[in-house]
Amino acid sequence: MSSQDRTLVISPNWIGDAVMAQPLLRLLKQAHPERAIDVLAPPQVVPVWKRIREADQIMETPFRHRALQLGERLRTAQQLRKRGYRDAYVLPNTLKYALIPWLARIPRRVGYKGEMRYGMVNVMHFDDSPPRPMVPFYAALAREPELPLPGQLARPSLVVAGEETEAVARHLGIALDRPLVAFAPGAEFGIAKRWPPAHYAQLAARVADTVPNVQIALMGSANDAETCEQVLAQAGIAGGVVRNLAGQTSLDDAIALLAQARAVVSNDSGLLHIASALNRPVVALYGSTDPNYAPPLSEIARTISLRLECSPCRQRECPLGHHDCMNKMSVDRVWSELLPILNRA
C-alpha cells in the first residue's frame, strides 16, 4: 500500500456522534477497499473507534476542549502531512478542525459548511433544513454533494470480543450466567435530558420483581455517580441486585459490559447509541432532544417521547423550569415498553 492509499477521518467530539459516523466509514471502505482509513479522535471517543471494523488506525488528538491551540494543530498537521493522505473528512463543523487537513496539505478536504471554512474545506456539503438524522448526515459525505445517498443505510455497528466482556465482568463482579439489565440515568449534555432518578428507581424495582436473579447495572461517567446513587438509594432493593457502576468503569469497560445486557434503558446519551450499535434491545427516553434526529437503530428499539408543545427545546436545562417532558413520562409508560423485551429474552 502506498502512502497515498490512505483516508483521514476527523472524529466528532461526542460519543454518540462518533458511533453514528460509522456508516460513513463503511461507505468509504466499500468505495475504496484498498485504501486504509485513519481516524483522528479526541481521547474520550477513542474506545468507540477501536470497535469500528473500518477504522485501520486511531490517533489521539492532543487538543483541549474549546481551545484553538494553533501551535498544536500545526504540529499535528505536519505529522499528518508525512503520511500523505489522499483525502480527509472533517466531521466536526468548527473552523479549528478544518484547519488541520488544510495545514497538512491534504488535496481533497470534505465537510459541511460549518463556521467560515471556505477554502479549508474544498468539497463543501450543505445540510438540509430541517436537519437530517445524524447517520445520513455523516454518511452523505461519502458521495459528491449533488448526489443522493444509496437506498437504505446499514445501522451503526460496534464489535466487542467475548473474552473482553468476560474479563470486564469478572473485574466488576458481574455474573454472566445471570440476566443483566443496564440503566443509563445520566447525560453529559445537561439535566434536561434526564428522566428523574425516582422514576428509574421505581422501574428498577419492577425489573427486580419480574426477572429472577437479575442484575441491574447503573452506568455512566463519574459525573453521573450522584444521580445513580439516588436511583440506588430510592430503589429500596435488598441483596445487591442494583449496582452503581457510574464512574467505576472506563468507557472501554462500559462498552464491553453493555454488549452482554438483556435490555438497556437510557436517556439520549452516548451509552444509548453504544448499546444500539451493539444491537442490544433498548428503551430510549427523549425529553429536550428530538428522537427523529438521533434515534436508536438496534433491531429491538423502543423510543419514548411525550412530544409536548415545548419540546424538543434542545436546551441543557428546561427554559420553563418544569421539565415536564421528562417528569411527566410515567414509569408505567416506560414499563409497558420494557416488559415485552424482558419477556422475550
In angstroms, what separates the terminal alpha carbons?
Answer: 46 Å
Low-confidence residue ranges? none
Any idea of the CATH topology of the largest domain? Rossmann fold
Give the name of the CATH superfamily of the largest domain: Glycogen Phosphorylase B
Count of discrete alpha- or pi-helical segments spanning 4 or more residues: 13
Short description:
The protein has 13 helices and twelve strands.
What does this structure look like?
The chain has two domains: 6-142, Glycogen Phosphorylase B (Rossmann fold, 3-Layer(aba) Sandwich), CATH 3.40.50; 164-344, Glycogen Phosphorylase B (Rossmann fold). Helix content is 34%, strand content 16%. It is built from 13 helices and twelve strands. It has helices at residues 15-20, 22-31, 46-49, 70-81, 95-103, 134-139, 162-172, 197-210, 225-235, 251-258, 270-277, 324-327, 331-344, and strands spanning 6-10, 36-41, 57-60, 87-90, 108-112, 123-125, 180-184, 215-218, 242-244, 263-267, 282-286, 301-305. α9 (225-235) links the parallel β8 and β9 (242-244). α4 (70-81) packs parallel to α5 (95-103), α8 packs across α9 and α8 (197-210) packs parallel to α13 (331-344).
